[in-house]
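Give me structure tokens for this 112-residue protein.
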Amino acid sequence: MTDLTNLLLCSQTWARPLDRGDYAIAVLSTRTDGTPYTHAFALNQLNITKPVAYSLTDLFTYVNYGKFLTKDSISVRVNPNGIVMIRATPVQFDVPQFEFSEFEEIEVFDVV
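Here you go.
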């Protein structure tokens, strides 16, 4: 598990590897002032570096936060003494497949 603790904001961010390359991420608030706040972090700060992009889903509300690169800043809103649980799933990029039969043959000649 990886811990990213922010002492000024009284918050902790934890990450744990799951199966199939997924990660569980928890953002825990220890604030007691009664005010929700926005907590920002990047996946690479939690030692999540490969692959380079993940889709993030809130495990309580099922809200999809979108797709993020490991270096992108991610912001979540956390209630005092609350927790946000996120599942990070690797993004699979669709690479178009071409067949050589789709291309015309061209004549190649030397230029003198």
